[in-house]
Structure formats: C-alpha cells, structure tokens
Amino acid sequence: MTEIQIKREALLSLLQDLIQIESVNPSLASKGSGEAAIARYIGDYLSNLGLEVHFQEIEKNRVNVVGILKGSGGGPSLMLNGHTDTVSADSMEMDPFAAEENDGKIYGRGALDMKAGVAALITAVQSIITAGIKLQGDVILTLVADEEYASIGTETVVNEYTADAAIICEPTDLDIVIAHKGFAWTKIEIFGHAAHGSLPHIGVDAIVKAGKVLAAVDELGQTSLKKKTHPLLGSASIHASLIEGGTELSTYPDYCKIELERRNLPGEDRKQVTEEMQALLDNIRRQDNQFKADLEVFFFRPAFEISREQPIVQTVSRAYASALNKTPKFQGMWGWLDSAILAQAGIPAVIFGPSGEGAHAAVEHVDVQSVITTTRVLVQSIIDFCKP
Ligand SMILES: [Zn+2]
Fold first, then answer.
1. How many angstroms separate the alpha carbon of residue 110 from the centre of ligand 1?
2. Strand bridging mode 139-144 / 62-69
3. C-alpha 117 to ligand 1 mean position (Å)
4. Which secondary structure element, helix H or strand E, spans residue 293, and what is its range?
C-alpha cells in the first residue's frame, strides 16, 4: 500500500485547537457552550482543504458540520463520524482547555473523548489530499453535536446524508469495536391510597409496594439477565436510578415513582424489554391484589453489532494489519455509541480510535502516538474503501 506522510505537528496543533474550544454539551451542564464554535472552526479548516462544507443547525448553539471530499465517481462512499461535544469540565483537576502536551500525552476535557478522533479523521483526509491521491468514492466527514446526551447530532446527519459504510473514531485503545450495548429508560409509577398514619385498614403504602418492585428488579438482574450474555459485551443488566415518593411522616404515601435503566444486548428490542418489565409487575399483582402500577419504557436505544465479514470491518482490519504489522483485536464497548443510529439508517459502522485515560473523569488525556496510529489506519482504510 501507498506510504503516506502524516504531519505530526499539524495533527497535534489541530487537536490542541479543538480542545481549546470549549464545547461542553449544554444538555449536561447548563453553562456549556455547545458545538457552534467548534463546528465553525472545523468548517473553516475543511473549507481550506477544499472540501464541500455544510452546517446543520439543530437547535441554538447545537450544530453539526459536514465536509465532503468528492470522489471521481464509481467507488463506495465512506462516512467518518466523530462527536464534537464533551461532558462537563467542572470537576477537572487541571485547566480543562489548556491542551497541554506532556510526556507523550495531551491533556484536557475531550482530549480522549473524542477530539483526538476528530483531529485524526480530519488529518487522515488532509494527508490523502496532500499526497495528491484521487479517490473514486466520496468521503463524508460528519462532526456531530450531542453524542454525550441524546445523539441529536447523528440523528440529524442520517436524515440528510448516507454512505456505504462508516467509521466512528471514538477512543477504542486501537482495538476494532464491533458491538456495544443499548439501553432502555423505564418509569414505573406505583399507586397507593393516602391515609392518616394511624389507619392501616385504609392506607395503602405506595413506597412499601415499590419495595416489592425493587426486590423483583434485583432478582431479575441476579438471575435471568445475568444469564443473557454476549461474547464481547458481558451480560444484560438493570438498575434503579431514581426514586421519588411520600409526603410526610404521618401519612400513608399514595404515590411512588421509580426510574430504571436496563442495559440491553444485540437482539433485544423495545417490545421484549417492555414485556419483561410488564411480566415482573403482573407477577407482583398476582400475589398482592392491592398492588397497582403503570409502566412506561420512555426512551429506548438498541444495542449494536456488526459482522466481522462486513467490508468495512475487513477494510479497517487490513489497514490496521498493514499499519501496525499485527492482527487487530475485536472488542465490544459497554457504553452507548452513535453506531446504532447509523446501523438503523442502513450504514454499517465500525468504531476505531486512540488510547488514553479519563474520559468523563477529573484528568483526561490521550496518548499522542496512538492518535498518529489512528490517523495512519484511517488513511489506509479510506484509500482501500473508496478506491484510488
Ligand atoms: Zn465519546
């Protein structure tokens, strides 16, 4: 394969610029600026490279930027996706936006998750342009808002853009990620009967009834969910996240609300997860005729898995083997990623990106050498997939 120069200094200074532009997700931290400024910066950068640039303003200060490197035609198109938002920087131990380089690492909020991946995918395209390589297929760079909260960025992208495959450059420690879990946010409202605390023949305690739900949730988690496993993702699981109920000490509470999170595996859909929770409530009702509850799965994201036989997985594997001279490791990632949205839109996706530590934590850094390696693998992947 063609050996292409990657300009280390340009890559790192791009990464440092991206970290220095605060783009905290305002849905997670009210004083976060959102993605408008970083989208503008990236738009200018891509324009200067000669890409066709489009902005998608989803809400105020919530902006996607899309850059298209037009191919000559006839080759498969490839989407390179990365999110520009970060989680809050409030609890960080050092200046989160200084982007200091020290001992082969670059520090700051978003350094790892995932401005390094964004810098790598832009630099990969830049390196191909600089080398004078003309591709047949289009390369579509989608730098999106809001992955850290509700993924409105990638959801907006797929309304307007498509491709034959995608690479998401989230940090994967240079492994190839081909599966991740999904989640279901579920609300259970338990209804009791309010009464003076001295009147047990009238009062029905919604909080005590909620205890039965929690015990059943524990049982579900420890038994059948534990047995549902995936080779790369461990087991399905459930936990209670929020609880609310009661008015005062001397009154039987007539209402209690529990919100739960179920983490699901590939193959589990919304209907299945809903039925499982409904069965749990029905079972309690059979044993307790005073038990009254409503169930709602109010937000569902499916899990994701792509076959190792898919062309994009093969492409990235070959590129990895050629760049690193070893065979790649395939992994699952436990948390949610935008790949499931791309998959639902008919775009097979694989996740590949750099190493580091402290995503969402008090100290976050990315390993510089791994960003360069990511870029090299991306360059080879783009050339292989989009055909010179
Ligand atoms: Zn991320």
1. 8
2. antiparallel
3. 9
4. strand 292-301
- For residue 123, the Cα-to-chain-centroid distance in whole angstroms is 22
How far is the centre of ligand 1, averaged over its atoms, from the C-alpha of 148 (Å)? 6
How far does residue 341's CA lie from ligand 1's centre (Å)? 14
Render pLDDT for 215-273 as a digit per residue (tens, 0 to 9): 999 999 999 999 999 999 999 999 999 999 999 999 999 999 999 999 999 999 999 99
Q: What is the DSSP string of 212-245?
A: HHHHHHHHHHHTHHHH-EETTTEE-EEEEEEEEE
| Cβ partners under 8 Å of residue 103, min gap 6 | none
**Ligand 1 centroid distance, CA of 170 (Å):** 5
Task: Quote the ligand 1 centre to 359 CA distance (angstroms).
Answer: 8
Alpha helices by DSSP H, listed for the chain, are 8-20, 36-48, 116-130, 152-160, 206-222, 224-227, 270-287, 311-324, 339-344, 368-386
| pTM (two decimals) | 0.92
Distance 193 CA to ligand 1 centre (A): 45
336 CA distance to ligand 1 middle (Å): 9
Q: Ligand 1 centre from 302 Cα, in Å?
A: 17
Q: Two tokens at 360?
A: 């969402």
CA of 230 to the centre of ligand 1 (A): 22
Task: Report residue 257 as tokens.
Answer: 């609300």
Residue 166 near residue 349, CB atoms below 8 Å: yes
Please state whether beta strands 176-180 and 365-367 pair in parallel, antiparallel, or not at all (unpaired): unpaired
pLDDT digits (tens, 9 = 90+) for 274-319: 999 999 999 999 999 999 999 999 999 999 999 999 999 999 999 9
Reference 168, options 342, 345, 373; nearest CA is 342
Is residue 307 packed enough to be buried (19+ CB in 10 Å), middle (13-18) or exposed (0-12)? exposed
